[in-house]
Model the fold of this input.
Amino acid sequence: MSKIVLIVDDEKDFVKVLALNLRKNDYAVRQALNGSQALLEMAQALLPDLVLLDLQLPDISGLELCRRMRSDPRTRSVAILMLTAKGEEIDRVVGFEMGADDYMVKPFSMRELMLRIQALLRRTAPDFASTAQQELQFGLLRMDVAAFRVWSADREVRLTTMEFKLLALLLERRGRVQTREVLMNDVWGIDSYVQSRTVDVHIDRLRKKLGQAEQYIETVHGMGYRLRAVP
Done:
């Protein structure tokens, strides 16, 4: 079955070009010209696998739509790739803080977009086949990989797919330093397309969500991050 991509953008000509290229690459395409229509699309029984989200929408902003998706249990694991004319670092950081998985600045090449979509769908696939254990326990943390659920001090924590994969990787490799380059490659899939700042933002969001367990994730200055060897 083809992967479903939802395009959320108010530029009709741009949407047509995107849809044409996506269909050429065997994706099923759904479209929304504003945030309200996008919410209706995601209320359907068959959720999209990925959302291409413009930040500047006529009603609900792309950032607000992203925030709503990440706060809703039904859509929090849907991959989000933001498409925008805003390319400053602060814009990227805010996008990632709202829960975006990737970020592209217009104009961009269709070839690069298709590669990013391919990598993102591969990395956000829910099977997590590379995880050796289906249940991971570490001090206050408990992770049920098969059910896509995490608890910190018996409180369930809602994570995005990328945050979940990041935590699973750190838990599996606890005690060992993971450089930003390794994390970019093993979590995001195409290291040349993801900046190291992306890793820092996701680590920061993950720590905040873990509450008491945030202390387990250590920063190794000049290198990267690691999960403690023992709680």
Remarks:
- The chain is about 40% helix and 20% strand.
- Residues 196-210 form the longest helix (15 residues).
- The first strand starts at residue 4 and ends at 8.
